[in-house]
Amino acid sequence: MLKVAKFGGSSVAGAEQFRKVKAIVEADESRRVIVISAAGKRDGNDHKLTDLLYLVHAHLTYGVSCEEILRTVETRLLEIRDELEIPVDISGELQEFKRKLNKDTSVDEIVSRGEYFTSKLMASYLDYAFVDAADCIFFGLDGTLDRETTDAAIAEAVEKYGRIVIPGFYGQLPTGRLRVMSRGGSDITGAIAAAAVKADVYENWTDVSGILMADPRIVPNPAPIEKITFAELRELAFMGASVLHEESVQPVKEKGIPLNIRNTNRPQDPGTMIVESVGELEQSERFITGIAGRKNFTIVTVYKHAMKLSHSLRQALEIFDRYNAPVEHITLGLDSFALVSSSAALGDAVYDVIAEIKKNCRPDEVEIRENIAMVSAVGRKMSSQPGVSGRLFKALGDKGINIRTIAQGSDELAITVGVENEQYENAIRVLYDSFAG
Ligand code: ASP
Asked: 164 phi and psi, to 5 degrees?
């Protein structure tokens, strides 16, 4: 058994969190590959090392002194080292890093040091080998991952050392320079490492006990999701639930490796298990897996008696495309179709879009409805249960929530309804209470 465990910024924010990570790693022999983020915030007034390092770069660029920020970074790291009596010499390296800094030092070089130093501390604290991401995460010249070289390097490091710590978030370009991923990228490093060593599970340790069935700012104490498929997760993320870095899912999904989201502060919680498919016997009683949504959509409805649907629809889609307004949902009627796009994406172009639709499609009428929220109930069980959509519409209707549009994906994984923006929170609560509560 081999597990890859990635610990996020809040899990390594200070000495206390380091202790929790050590207890988690030591509790399971198979946690042999550890990926570490840069120390994050210890409380609401604190700063992430990564943010401080981005600031260092900005100061250098504008020729403003960054001494104080560098001192804060250094103090954070040395405090952890001293409190835990970690036998690693990072102060020498920190001095060297500071000495070499100048206005031409690349931003990647600077911000990657958050992960680098935090991981050096953690590797020594756990007594694992430190393997620099510069030596095992490789990008091609176009910035995309060089899978083959990366997989081989990680597998070789595990073979050689047995237990390793890799800093997340960055890797090396063919030019030898460092390159950081997008924000939150340590999730991706973890997934890459899990895929490289064909881990039995990829554990992503954070500060929540998994994915919740609904946004806790809207539904009080929503239940956590125990099991969810990658496809369901994609639907929820698309509809606005912020969960994992999107690119962090692909490497493990491809290899059929389950992804387990866990809470460093509550290791006793099982968290959420994300899998390719859920066996019949493991199905939960719930009809739906989760609820998510977003506000501020515009619905453009085109009416035309006896239209050639495919022709008019294609024309309308092309017009949206030309104005860079992605169509997120489509509903069809006999003599009409409706396209739903985010109001922000449409912007003022909405008037040109309408004008062009009128010119090209020659409709009887075009209607626009703004301030629409789209709310999705997502669940793999919906396709096998008759009457779920009926129940859903009834629940909303009983509470006086007007449904402006309905869209069901062809894979029957989600039912999405459009309601007025001001009914958004209400709709989510009603759906949660009727299906999950
Ligand atoms: N430290 C980086 C960030 O704050 C990457 C990560 O934490 O995953 O975005």
From this structure: -135, 155
Testing ligand 1's pocket by substitution, the residue of 6, 55, 116, 169 carrying the most ligand atoms inside 8 A of its CB is 169
In a domain, 217, yes or no: no
**In this predicted structure, which of 50-59, 291-300, 391-400 has the lowest mean pLDDT?**
391-400
Q: Are residues 53 and 199 in the same domain?
A: yes
Q: Which pLDDT score, from 0 to 100, does residue 6 have?
A: 98
Q: Whose CA is nearest to atom 5 of ligand 1?
A: 184
Nearest CA to ligand 1 atom 8: 184
Q: Give the length of the chain.
A: 437
Q: How confident is the model at residue 156 (pLDDT cuts 50, 70, 90)?
A: very high
| Judgement on whether residues 93 and 198 belong to the same structural domain of the protein | yes
382 vs 386: CA distance, rounded Å: 8
Smallest Cα–Cα separation from 312: which of 265, 358, 276, 249? Answer: 358
Which atom of ligand 1 approaches the CA of 9 most closely?
A: 7
Q: Do residues 304 and 199 share a domain?
A: no
- Is the Cβ atom of 263 under 6 angstroms away from ligand 1? no
Q: What is the pLDDT of residue 246?
A: 77
Among 128-132, 278-282, 372-376, the range scoring the smallest mean pLDDT is: 278-282
The CATH number of the domain holding residue 317 is: 3.30.2130.10
CB 281 within 8 Å of CB 223: no
pTM for this model (two decimals): 0.89
DSSP assignment letter at 285:
S
How many structural domains comprise the chain? 2
SS3 284: coil
Q: What is the CATH number of the domain that holds 109?
A: 3.40.1160.10
Rounded CA-CA distance 274/334 in Å is: 39
What is the extent of the structural domain holding 320?
290-435
Q: Tell me: do 142 and 25 sit in the same domain.
A: yes
Is the model's pLDDT at 238 over the cut of 80? Answer: no
By mean pLDDT, which of 47-51, 236-240, 260-264 is the weakest?
Answer: 236-240
